[in-house]
């Protein structure tokens, strides 16, 4: 993958006229590592440090996989990598037999997809309004949106929960989904992007008689696909992993998301090491697969949404 | 760019292209902003106001005391409540323990990965994958590692002749253990931000430095770090704000124990509101916390914007 794809979409500084690859092949001024240097010792030391660090970061995964493949007896008595009784798939079998996990995974997926779709749609519409249209109170409203980025969502749980109680929404999908669909930071990021879309295209469409909706749907949105994807991926990951609000707004096991459901397993059977590991692996795998498939977009999405604050 | 501006002005003069206050048909932004406004109002502005109002009452989870105006009583209580202070102290301690490593380790990772080393995606996956995991998965995996008798960490310590430690059960170590887990879990996000920033550093700076004979340290101090300053400022600000809001991993690993030594302020708010049903008081504590967050953010922005000059 070309490293260039990682560059943030905005404010990329001027690049060298000589591409890094070419410079490296010519053994020119550009070294193997622009900062750390070119010498063989640097090369070996950097590689070694990188391998060790990556190994340390992967170790917890390895240990969890190993534990999940032990029998419950081995898992709670054996401290080695290779269990006395050999490896077994018992833990996985039991998880599927008792099986709330598929339900929670489905809930997580439905909730994350709904939040993502809602957030992207209403944020993109609002960002378009802030970027491209005039209406009374636009500046004040945008200022309020920006200011609200500072509000930690955690301080809203108490009043939000009361609101949900009074709206009779506790233990419904709506209670979990709706409050998560407010993302002022994403409105800001999208507005910044829309500001940079050339107006000429939009104006050409208007001259052809297209109204605002038409311009939004067939000019602005298609041009913004990369940033929309970035925002969508970012929102999806955060929603999938969100714990506090889904935890507070649901108590019905049939409505729980994976993070919430898994936390209840731990409480009731804290000593089932093999099973909890197997459950963790099963819950972790979908996102890892998604990451491997969409790596480029995910990396980009973090880079753009993170840098959006600049 | 300047040549592109000409058609823009020309078409703007035609009157139909630019939306105006009087506006061509369909040019008003209201229909576009309305859905967001409804959500923003209902789930952000309303709870902010409602919470503020609740903080001046004796509201409880059962609905009792909703209309009992308590004035500043809740705030007076919050400021003298030892649990508020100790949970704030824990929160600040956690923030200190995590923020520095989460910036430094992320930078080291990015510097190491930003080489001609083959297999870029493997390195990125190794460092970023934990960030993708739900908190419940992370805490379950780490509670295995932290197990005093069976855990991997203690077996590794024993292998080199050190007695195992009570990672989560010993007051001395619990917060450090949670900080370690947090580093493993979240550093990948900062790592990606640094990696993106490193790749945007113009090559000609290094080419010039190489001609001048600058060594590795010199290049790091005089080119790379200064070029990354904006990113570092951004990461530091985001990181401090994120660390102050810690709740999930602590709640799932230790429930704030042992002996409240890891209980962060958000957990105290949660306990007060949802276990003790004191929503009014919980709201007041929320607002005390909010005030602290705002003060710290403004201070940080001031510090970093001054450095930019």
Overview of this structure, please?
The complex is a heterodimer of chains A (about 300) and B (about 300). In chain A, about 65% of the residues lie in helices and about 0% in strands. With about 300 residues, chain A is mostly helical. In chain A, helix 5 (about 100-130) packs across helix 12 (about 225-240) and helix 14 (about 260-270) runs antiparallel to helix 15. The longest helix of chain A is centred in the middle third of the chain and has 32 residues, at about 100-130. Chain A is globular and about 75 Å long. In chain B, helix 5 crosses helix 8 (about 175-200). The two termini of chain B are about 30 Å apart. The chains are: A mainly alpha (about 300), B mainly alpha (about 300). The interface between A and B is large, with 129 and 125 residues.
Write the layout of secondary structure elements.
The complex is a heterodimer of chains A (310) and B (309).
Chain A: H1 20-25, H2 40-68, H3 72-75, H4 90-98, H5 101-132, H6 138-148, H7 157-166, H8 173-177, H9 184-196, H10 199-207, H11 212-223, H12 225-241, H13 244-249, H14 258-268, H15 273-293, H16 295-307
Helix pairs in contact in A: 2-15, 4-15, 5-9, 5-12, 5-14, 10-11, 12-16, 14-15
Chain B: H1 2-13, H2 30-54, H3 73-80, H4 82-113, H5 120-132, H6 135-146, H7 152-159, H8 174-199, H9 203-211, H10 216-227, H11 229-244, H12 248-254, H13 265-275, H14 279-308
Radius of gyration of chain A: 25 Å
Please report the total strand number of chain A as a whole number: 0
Fraction of residues in H or I helices of chain B: over 70%
Low-confidence stretches of chain A: 1-31
What is the subunit organization of this protein?
heterodimer
Task: Please describe the biggest sheet of chain A, giving its number of strands, its sense, and whether it closes into a barrel.
Answer: none
Tell me, briefly, the overall form of chain A: globular
Please count the helical segments of chain B.
Answer: 14
Biggest sheet descriptor of chain B: none
The class by helix and strand makeup of chain A works out as mainly alpha
Please report the total strand number of chain B as a whole number: 0
Indicate the low-confidence ranges of chain B by residue numbers: 1-26
Strand content of chain A: under 5%
SSE order of chain B in H/E notation? HHHHHHHHHHHHHH
Share of β-strand residues of chain B: under 5%
Radius of gyration of chain B over all CA atoms, rounded: 26 Å
Tell the overall outline of chain B: globular
